Amino acid sequence: MADVHGNDVALQAVLDDAAGCQVDRWWVLGDLVLSGPRPAEVLEVLRSLPGVEMLRGNTDRYVLTGEQPAPHATAADAARSVDLVERYGLMAAGIGWTRGVLSQAGLLGILTGLPGELRLDRPGGLRVLGVHASPRADHGPGISPGRSDDDLGRVLAGCAADVVIGGHTHKATDRVVNGVRALNPGSTGIPLRPGEAGWLLLEFADDPERRADPARGTVAGLRAEQRIAPFDVDAVVRDLHARLHPNTEFLEAVLTGRRPQRRESDDS
Ligand SMILES: [Mn+2]
Hints:
Layout: H1 8-18, E1 27-28, H2 39-47, E2 53-54, H3 58-65, H4 75-80, H5 82-104, H6 108-112, E3 118-121, E4 127-131, H7 149-156, E5 163-166, E6 173-177, E7 180-184, E8 196-204, E9 222-230, H8 233-242, H9 248-255
Parallel strand pairs: 1-2, 4-5, 5-7
Antiparallel strand pairs: 3-4, 6-7, 8-9
Helix pairs in contact: 3-5, 8-9
The structure holds manganese (II) ion.
Manganese (II) ion binds near residues 31, 57, 59, 132 and 268.
């Protein structure tokens, strides 16, 4: 999973979908808490998953540090534009709200301890790397279907992995670039298609218990199945209102698709 963004309804939909899939290990690739109405509940559920490992996304970093997406507006920009000041102020309010909820629940420390990447070395030699956006970066252009092979290949070069899985762009992806399989599960909590939580089911061919079926599209010793779990968008919107989330208006528009997410999103 990636980019759960504090959406407990979408998270539960994914877990319900996964219930029949014999998942024995979860990776959660960052942007765990910011934006949705239930950051504490999401963290509690995530950390209880079997074999779970999580990493820190850029918005998890914002919750810890108060930073906002670069490039920052200059003082001169801000002096010229009330809208700009309002936008930064609203973002700061959302970050502060999330930090407050997690502090109150005693869960902020979970974010502090998160690593920047995850690694898994399979018995058969397959090396798997989990990142938020791309190797060594939790923001900027990430793994997406639209990025050129050259561009993506440059970012993946030297990553010492056969498979790289990243989130951040919210765009489900399955490509092979310069022999590296690049995957993106799409976003669980703020999917591009409203109400369709994304996640990725991986099955390793070297697992003696469950041999992947070559006829089902195993590439580089791995079968990856993009899965979609429908969830109740209106329930999330109602909860944002009920919880007095400071970004409710903006998030309602994004979750319902009335306001599209940025096309080549740098900081989802
Ligand atoms: Mn992100």
